[in-house]
Structures are given as C-alpha cells and as structure tokens.
Amino acid sequence: MIAVEQLVKDFGEGPVLKSINTTFETGKVTVIIGPSGSGKSTLLRSLNYLETPSSGTITFKDTRLSDDPKTLGKVRQNMGMVFQSFHLFNHLSVLSNCTVAQVNVLKRDKEEAKENALNALEKVGMKAYAHRKPSQLSGGQKQRVAIARALSMNPEVMLFDEPTSALDPEMVAEVLQVIKKVAREGLTMILVTHEMQFAKDIADRVIFMDQGQIIEDRMDDLIFTEPKEERTKQFLNLLNH
Amino acid sequence: MVVLNALPPSFLGGLVGIFRNYYPLLLEGLKFTLILAVVGTIFGLIIAMVLVVFRLLKIENHQPLTSKIIKKGLKRFSILYIGFFRGTPMMVQAMIFYYGLNEMGVRLAFLYAGLVVVSLNTAAYLTEVLRAGIESIDPGQEEAAKSLGMSNALTYRKILLPQALKNMVPAIGNELVVNIKDTAVLSVIGVGELFYFGRSIAGATYRYTEAFVAVSIVYLVTVMIAVFMLKKVSDLFGKDAKQLLASESEGMV
Predict the structure, then answer these.
(1) Distance from CA of A133 to the nearest CA of B (A)
(2) Of A73, A135, A146, the CB nearest to B151
(3) What is the rounded distance in angstroms from the CA atom of residue B55 to the CA atom of residue B53?
(4) Does the model's ipTM exceed the 0.85 cut?
C-alpha cells in the first residue's frame, strides 16, 4: 500500500535517513522501534510528507507523493496521523475537532460528519466529552480524541508517532487499549513506540531502526525474544535493564 | 446659530457655555471620529488578514521559479507596506494620499479619503500583531491540520486565524482606542471630525483653551467608554469553554 524507495532525509547535519527501502502492506500493523535519534519518527513523518524527503520516493497506492498541494491533500486525508503531543485544535470543541476536516476537506454534510464523529468518539470512549474544549481534558483523553479525529476521516492508514510518550504513566494504558481496539478492526497501521510489551502484543511486523537505517525487519514478534542482529540485541538488552 | 461673545468670561463659565452652545457641533464631530475609528479599524483588520498571508509566505527551494518570484514579490510588498505606514506619521500619509490623488484628478470626499488613510495605516499595525499571533501558535496545530488533508488556505482560515484573532482581541481594541485619538490628524485634510470642529469652535469664540479642553473631555469620555466595552469583549473571549459551550454545541464549524 505504501512503498518507500531510496528515501534519504538530511536536515543539513548529516543524513537522518540513509536510503530506506521498504513497503507497508494493507491490513498489517507495523511497529517501528529503535533508540532516540534512529530516524524512526522522521521515517513515519515522511510517509505523509510532513517531512519532505531530501531524495527518494514515497508511493501511496498508485500515487507518487510530491509537493503538489492537491495530490498531497488527497493522500493525507487517507492517512490519519496521531502525534506525540496530541495537537488538538485548541479553539474547537472535541466534536468540532472531529468534524472540521470532514466538512471542509471531504465536503461531508454536517449532520453526517457529526454522526461519524460521534461514532469515532464512542469508539475511543470520549463521546460524553463531545462538547468539552481540549483544555478541559487530561492527556490521555486528549490523545483518545486525537485518535477519534483521525478515525473520523475514515482513513485507509493510521500513523502513530510515539502516541504515549507525552503521557503520565497512569494514562498510557487507556490510550494503548484504544489503539489495540482500532488495530483489531483491520486498519493498516504504522506505529513508532517505546512500549515494547504493547509492540509485541499488537505487531504483525516489527522494524528495528538505528542510525537512519533499517537494521532488522521481522514479520513476527520473535524479534523480542530471538533478535538476529547484534544491535537489536543490545537495544533490547538496554531496555530490559 | 453662533452667538459671539455670549460666553461668560471665566474659564469654567466659558467651558460650560461651549458645551451648552456648541454641543451639536461636538456631537457631529464625535460621530465622524467614531465612524473613522470603528470603520477604519474593521477595514484595517480585513486588509491585515490578507497582508499577513503575504508576510508569512514561505519560499522554499524546491518550488517552481515563477511561484517563487511571485511569492517573493508579495512578501517584499508586505514588508515595504508595513515599513512605510509604521515609519511615517499618519498626518503625512494623509497629505500625500489626499494631494496625490487630487493631482491625479481623483477627488475623494474628505470622509472617504480619511477612511482610506486610517484603514491603510491600521492595517500595517494589525498585520504585525496578527503575524506575532500566528507565529506564537504551536506549529503542531498546522501539522495536525495538514495531516488531515487541509490546504494552506483552509489551515489558515479554520485553524490559525481563529486562534490568532482570539489572542489579538486586546491588541485590536488598543488599535481602536489609538484610532479614536489619532484620527484628529485627519483634520489637516479637512475631515470634519471632533478636533476639526474643536478648531471651528475655538475660531468662532476666540476661547481656545476652553474649546480644546471641551474637545479633550469628549475624547476622554469616549475613550473611557470604549476601553470599558473592550474589556467586556476581551473577558468574553478569554472565558473558557463553559460560557461558549452553549453557543458552540449548536453550530459546528
């Protein structure tokens, strides 16, 4: 569904991504792990062109991504994204956060958008908060709304960029539970996370990245118990101690 | 209607006399001052909302040459515009505008000429206020909008501008108060606002001090009322969800 070819990203201080080649299949849950600065978030953000590649290509279905705003808009409305620090629209209610893009981007009828948004909010357990403002929510609640906002667009792919890293420990579980629920519905998902147990539970495929490269790419969750590469072993050992 | 020498000789008597005899002129002047200030601020804000888009244009290397040139031109224009209107006195701008147009054969009614000058001037200040407002918004807001497929224009209109405007309410109010006072300079091109009529009253009565004290009292009271009303509006915007809840739950964006 998404093909990455010879993707290089350089912010001007040496490449953060060094020629990444991979594809993401429909319906699969892929988890990307790796140490800080390994380029995993940059890779994720390149998939919807929030980072413009220095070279290389991203292809979503049959569309090759480019700077053309029309193409980009079409691709992005099909790729939901959940950020580390939520980024809910502060001036809008929870409900409006979930309808603003449906109405203005997808041109959905207001009633339809509202119904759709309420369904998504129900899925994440936030329907009762539809008329609150983001400032009145806890971190975990904000992140659940952010997931509902992305789901309201009925995307084909969901990207999660360290969705629990900015949360207080007691709120991590509620968000992970919601993500698992979404994953069970068969949506194509790509996640960057530091939650190893969660990664193990949810992943169809695990990618380990280090220093801008894919070091190990496994179609099972055995990477956690039987890593093949030395660097993967070291990384996992560090986490266990 | 002007009865010369009808004012009592004392300062206070003269002042009271001016209010009593000339209040229609003062009110007439006040009316135009308010029109200039309010309409000028509103138009200024509208122009600023367009100018700030130019001001914030990002020129990136990978864009085609023509779009880079156009963007650069618009951005340069906005910077020059802001520089000129903030860097020269409004009185001078009024002169240039009025006589410049006159020489080009365009005769604009005094009021309209004044309105244009106030609006253009206000736009320059509000563009900078708006720019600061937009730049202070967390870049994550823009990223989230983009990730939902919103175009630049939509992001600006639905996400960035509303948040910037909300933060700007005090600054816009401030600009309105400044305009109530600063429109006095438009009397140089013959706009019949409060100060202009103050001069007429002074000329008619030869009681300069009293006339301008009377005018300053009208300005002061007007500004105080404006400040009070603006504070109410600011509070309304500052209040969190609770108050806005009822209104927003009905109409969605």
Answers:
(1) 6
(2) A73
(3) 5
(4) yes
